[in-house]
Amino acid sequence: xxxxxxxxxxxxxxxxxxxxxxIFSWFPAFAVTLNLFSGHFFTLIPDTYHCRPDPSLLPSTLxxxxxxxxSYLNLTIPWDGNSxxxxxxxxxxxxxxxxxxxxxxxERVSCTxxxxxxxxxxxxxxxxxxxxxxxxxxINAWACLLTSAPPLxxxxxxxxxxxxxxxxICFMVGWIVGYIFLGTLCDWLGRQRGFLLSVGLSSxxxxxxxxxxxxxxxxxxxxxxxxxxxxxxxxxxxxxDPPNRLMVAMVGGFVSVSAELLLPxxxxxxxxxxxxxxxxxxxxxLLLSYWCCASVFPESPRWLLATDQIPKAKKSFQExxxxxxxxxxxxxxxxxxxxxDSTYGEDCxxxxxxxxxxxxxxxxxxxxxxxxxxxxxxxxxxxxxTRNLLNYSKNFYxxxxxxxxxxxxxxxxxxLSVNHFGRRGMLLLSxxxxxxxxxxxxxxxxxxxxxxxxxxxxxxxxxxxxxxLVLVLSVVGLLFSQALSMxxxxxxxxxxxxxxxxxxxxxxxxxxxxxxxxxxLMELQSSSGYFLHxxxxxxxxxLSVLCIxxxxxxKRKSLPDxxxxxxxxxxxxxxxxxxxxx
Length: 582
Known about the structure:
The chain is mainly α. Helices cover 62% and strands 2% of the residues. The chain folds into three domains: 1-43 and 170-352, Growth Hormone, Chain: A (Up-down Bundle); 49-160, no CATH class; 354-575, Up-down Bundle (Growth Hormone, Chain: A), CATH 1.20.1250.20. The chain has helices at 3-6, 16-37, 39-42, 69-76, 135-147, 163-189, 191-210, 215-228, 234-238, 242-270, 273-286, 289-292, 301-306, 310-323, 332-344, 363-380, 382-389, 396-421, 423-446, 462-495, 501-524, 530-548, 563-567, 576-581; strands at 49-51, 89-92, 107-110, 115-117. Helix 16 packs parallel to helix 21 (501-524). The longest helix is centred in the C-terminal third of the chain and has 34 residues, at 462-495. The chain is elongated and about 105 Å long.
């Protein structure tokens, strides 16, 4: 029984109550974004840092008070070319040297007393540094007294730098498992119960992360928190009619962008990473109010009908109809209920599905695989574009806000174009521009352009033109790669059937997290494989253009509910006029 043509109009359509529920479905996007992107501030390495001077490595006759601060640093810390004071080494002098004016034999040793850091972006301390103040000093001291453990000192620099990308990878692994597991759980338990379970457990883990005192405990709890922070955002789309689905999804995207814009200000106010983690957990705690007021996040009536839960579906239909102002005694509404009884019968039993059902399908599996591939490319290739931006500014905020602004522009681009030109057409255009930008950047960054010797006076030198092209291509590629990611996730919601939509969307989003983890793998190898990474993703972007041609078009079409309807989501013919003529 078709939900959107035969049932939704009799429930008030996209009425007042549906709009209220959709508005409340946007708030989880804000909470999820705060938790996802706060990790950028937790693991940001300070711009400048060096070893803390160790007087035991200096001659016993030397008095530090006889030197200025800068002279003392120059005496104790090696100077590494143009980078300034060494990050990881100290000078060790012979013990009986009295004259330091000549060439004194000295050796380089690793840091012995920790590091001194400059203030990181936004926060005064994060998990990289060991500088703690304010409330967290009291928390850490209290924890040390209870466990007789040493104070928290992580110092994730130099030989321990590899632990930072490891934290990113663990975080992404948690999101991958969470997307798949809780996405499937939403298909088994329903949208409402899956959402409330996710929020409740993730809030608890968010609080525990604030109190973690060892790096291993921090990584394990953060991974578990990432598994549980997966919030079900399917109900909003399942309550809309086709003309409003894009608007609902894109407003959710703008809510996520607003959270990213707010995050640097929160970091400045919070100062310490445990406080920022606590603030990021507060929206999750507020979402627990949905448990007390179930009417703001009801169970999806579309899912109830698709899984043959007819008594619950009837009750949900009556609730939506009454809250939308539909007169229940009108003759049309009892007719709909009677048609339900005749279609499904009295002995109809509920039937639940999982992503394992994809083994028996051809079209659904193909669509899920293609959209997973495009989202993987969209998230993974962004590292190729953001890395080039570091050549223009080392400032963290430059790259951060440029990425957020291009994300907002990608939302605007989708809003203005997708309903007019179609989902598949704009996804194809985004993949083409992303691939071309990546290929051109690959060529420009490998060639060494020099200024011709016969040009004595020029307005724009060849080098300036080269740098300008690299900057423009990086921004354009970043813009359309984010549009590719957003469209892939939205497209997956529209072409996957209701009975497995949660699990299929989880698979697609998990593929996107694999792409995000690829950048952390590059950092783990100190960017030694960056060129190969760029070549692979540029090739994948070109290959995705051919794959997108196999996708269906979902513009202004009803959402598929059953596996049979999902199998009917086939691509339109390539030559439509000739096809009609035949």
